[in-house]
Specification:
Shape: elongated
Number of strands: 15
CATH architecture of the largest domain: 3-Layer(aba) Sandwich
CATH topology of the largest domain: Rossmann fold
CATH superfamily of the largest domain: Glycogen Phosphorylase B
Structural class: alpha/beta
Distance between the termini: 16 Å
Strand content: 15-25%
Number of helices: 14
Order of helices and strands: EEHEEHHEHEHEHEEHEHEHEHEEHHHEH
CATH class of the largest domain: Alpha Beta
Length: 367
């Protein structure tokens, strides 16, 4: 008798903080396509942060790589009882533990590739990767190409674009509202942030009603708050709480500002495009979805004058803003829909495991 596919989605707190919406729709989407799902999440995860459907397996996090890897590998017995068929590590920091776990269970593993740091991890872990039982799911084509240079044959490497939900219409506020910018990054006040702060300070001198909302990937937002105060824009600024729904966060904004070249794909940027919000970003060679004048307005150098020019365009050119929102939404609908991500994920599971498990496509074929 052919069994039903059962996937374990493995996440940590840092990834869930940034990609909670993706975790939920991926799990629900897979279950909607008759793939059973076990949510492998940190013990501190609340019921509100995961799907009420599917199995739940918890593990205790550690800031030490070896301890984290050991604890994930220790889930072998529990996952074996659930009859898991494939492991899916959603963050690069979980790869080592997921590979040890896959070895103990004798099953394949999918490793998400979301940033340039993951390419370095792939090189370090090459000896631990069983090529015939491992697949890399890269968020962008440049990341997929970088992995291909270092992975052993016949490792399965696929460009699997992350998905976004497409609202029925654009959520842009009225042009006469006070300008509201959501600024997203890693929360570390580097030179790229400092240049942005200087541009914001100058812009606010002429537009004192401007509102700034800071979305930080890092857990500790206090250093960023200190930098905001130091650069004289504190009165116009608010910090976005952890685990907020990104679609809710974007609903009142005029633009999403991405001031750093982090080489990391994030669904919040794609969601802004899906909502019809202009994205203002530093050019980043690893993010192929930042297409100047089609999905985003980008700056190569990110100097003060470049940022001021982009802020003024958002403020003073509503026709250009509307056009950008339209072209970005069209591009997302063609390349980054959430439903397509689920479909491509299932196909990757299918390629990695072969035809020994029952998938929706197989059921339709046999009907």
């Amino acid at each position: 008798m052919v069994g039903l596919m059962h996937a374990a989605l493995i996440a940590d707190t840092a990834w869930l903080t940034d990609e909670l919406a993706m975790f939920k729709f991926l799990g629900v989407g897979l279950m909607g396509e008759q793939v059973r799902v076990a949510q492998v999440v940190p013990a501190c995860t609340t019921d509100q942060q995961i799907s009420a459907f599917g199995d739940r397996v918890t593990w205790h996090e550690s800031r030490f790589d070896l301890v984290r890897s050991h604890r994930l590998a220790g889930l072998a017995g529990e996952l074996d009882e659930l009859r898991i068929n494939v492991l899916h590590a959603l963050d690069g920091r979980l790869w080592a533990g997921a590979l040890r776990l896959a070895e103990r269970l004798g099953m394949p593993a999918v490793l998400n590739v979301a940033c340039i740091q993951d390419v370095t991890r792939a090189i370090k872990l090459r000896r631990n990767i069983a090529a015939c039982r491992t697949a890399f799911a890269a968020a962008t084509e440049p990341l997929a190409q970088a992995i291909r240079k270092h992975a052993a044959d016949p490792t399965l490497i696929r460009h699997l674009p992350p998905g976004a939900h497409m609202p029925a219409e654009s959520v842009c506020p009225k042009s006469n509202d006070a300008l509201c910018l959501v600024i997203t990054g890693n929360g570390i006040c580097d030179t790229q942030y400092q240049t942005l702060f200087e541009a914001l300070r100058l812009f606010i001198e002429d537009h004192r009603d401007t509102l700034l909302f800071f979305d930080s990937q890092g857990g500790d937002q206090h250093p960023l708050w200190q930098a905001i105060r130091r650069h004289g824009v504190l009165d116009n600024s608010s910090m976005i709480p952890t685990y907020i729904n990104h679609r809710e966060m974007l609903s009142g904004a005029h633009a999403l500002v991405q001031p750093q070249t982090l080489g990391r794909a994030r669904s919040v940027t794609l969601q802004a495009m899906a909502c019809g919000l202009p994205v203002l970003a530093r050019q980043d060679q690893w993010l192929d979805y930042l297409i100047d004048d089609q999905t985003a307005w980008t700056t190569e150098h990110g100097d003060v004058e470049d940022w001021l020019r982009l802020f003024r365009r958002i403020r003073d050119d509503p026709i250009a803003v509307q056009k950008m929102g339209l072209t970005a939404r069209q591009w997302i609908s063609q390349h980054h829909l959430a439903a397509a991500q689920v479909e491509h994920t299932i196909e990757l599971y299918r390629q990695l495991t072969g035809e020994s498990y029952r998938f929706p496509q197989a059921q339709e074929h046999n009907a």
